[in-house]
Amino acid sequence: MKRLLFLFQYIGNPRTVGAILPSSRFLGDKMMEGIDFKKAKYIVEYGPGTGVFTKKLLEKRNPETIILLVEQNKEFYSLLKEKFKDERNLFIVYGSAENIIEHLREYGIPYIDYVISGLPFASLPKGVSNKILLETSKILKKDGEFITFQYTLFKKTFFEQFFTKIDVKREFRNVPPAYVFSCSMPQNDMGELYGV
């Protein structure tokens, strides 16, 4: 059922959905590898889709850790609201990652430890990608990470405009195989969201 929904959403919205099938559990594991779940207080996920990565985040997180999901596809948003309706410290926003600072202010979240992203940067308009990554670089705390996957290395130089350190890993057990990018600014103390 979820696979069919994903396929239909891809056919209708190929620029924003970006894949024909949900991500594999192997890719999900690779996306979680670098997260320090004991220390993370705030995690954001952009474009959670059917919730493959969300489920893993919820399994591994400290129960006090706050997770914010940002989904702009109405069908996926409705699915996530129903699927995770009983979860504590999980907030789901129907909106764009471009407006992440507004979303964080709405929930009183001062900064982010990790941003997990399923957004298809290869097919998003450049202006949208620019805004998302610029806003993301502002909300990450010192040594925070932006973790995303892409199907090619094409966007690596683009990510390097916003992050000074990028680690890349390959996951073959996904359709199609994917690259996981862990992006950070280790020397940069960004301060908190409200300009402190």
Automatic annotation (TrEMBL):
Pfam families: RrnaAD
Membrane-spanning intervals of the chain: none
Keywords annotated in UniProt: Methyltransferase, RNA-binding, S-adenosyl-L-methionine, Transferase
GO biological process, one term: methylation
MF (Gene Ontology): methyltransferase activity; RNA binding
Source domain of life: Bacteria
Designated name of the protein: SAM-dependent methyltransferase
